Amino acid sequence: MTDQSVPKARTSADDNIGRPRTADGISRRTLLGTAGATGLVLGAAGAAAGYAAAPAQATPLSSLGAGRAMFHGKHQPGITEGLQARGHLIAFDLTAGASRKEAAALLRRWSQTAERLMAGEPAAHGDTDVARDAGPSSLTVTFGFGRSFFTRTGLEQQRPDALAPLPEFSSDRLDKARSNGDLWVQIGADDALVAFHALRALQKDAGSAARVRWQMNGFNRSPGATAHPMTARNLMGQIDGTRNPKPDAPDFDRQIFVPDGGRPSWMANGSYAVVRRIRMLLDDWEQLSVTEQEDVIGRRKSDGAPLSGGTEATAMDLDRTDKAGDLVVPVNAHARVTRPDQNGGAAMLRRPFSYHDGIAADGVPDAGLLFICWQADPLRGFVPVQRKLDRGDALSQFVRHEASGLFAVPGGAAQGEYVGQRLLEG
Fold first, then answer.
1. Cα 143 to Cα 157: distance, rounded to the nearest angstrom
2. pLDDT digits 0-9 by tens, 196-233
3. pTM for the full predicted model
4. Strand spans (E) along 147-248
5. Is 107 helix (H, G, I), strand (E, B) or coil?
6. What sequence ranges are listed for the domain Dyp-type peroxidase N-terminal (predicted)?
């Protein structure tokens, strides 16, 4: 976890950074029910197969269900959008005998399915009806390639140098079975059934070409749950995301996305995702007083303001001392250690999910953060910050990294393309 963290929680369409929205709030059932009268067409021919027509006067969707992200674009969806209420992360390994040809066919199927589901349409074949009656609900689907994918498909010469294995860190207790993978898919939505519907459809699309390596489920606060837009909180109760890079910052694209003309060329406008399952030792954390917790983080728990004073947005005064001459923000406070200006300018865009995978027989919760961070180069983003944390972060005794992955996420697919086409057919 870092202080340059989660984008602010959304409570309205205006708060969705970079997310195109539908112009109105009509549901897929309304669209289907009125298509004959208005000539409106949803996607490819036959998109409505298996869906019963609704009365022409069906009730429009709420703003939550009507939210829609675009599949085609310069960047893949699911990177710059605000936090989503429900998420699924899933990694696949290509099956024995599956090669570049099968991988290309799989990415083509996945892209077609993602485009349909993100538009609020049913899957083309064997739709499960899980998302029937719901709108797109801001669904995003993002695809990435792991280091091993390039060996499996004979594309080693196209493997980016940035996909070098991450170094080992002192807080790592990694489960190899839940780490890495040939292919990675991130699913996010503002409705749990819509997110699960996408997960199930993509799993079925994998067919005989790939098998699931691992899968994780996450959540965030639902849009509209707070009286006004605010930065999200994590399961420790801390406001988490104050210093996340902003898309309107002049150096945002340089820090987060691979530029046109970068190497390899198929990664133009893409990014690299570091994925970590970080267990929070909540029983230990909750034994601390609020003051002790604030010293660990370096910010007030109530409003996220730095201990040096001001509001959440106030710049932290790292040199301020109290009457006894001690630093107000402790030298090992998490917010101090992770500041970009304390790490050579290293920056990454975080879009994590919280997770809770049950309670053990001794009452200890298996809960924490599905950490996902985006950067143009993990060797200049995630790695230097995590090394700094290794050397002295007060929060490290309350967290444990249990799974890890690094994935190359290519730029968005143009109309008529599938994700990864420039790699697989270049």
1. 20
2. 999 999 999 999 999 999 999 999 999 889 998 899 99
3. 0.85
4. 183-189, 210-219
5. helix
6. 76-220
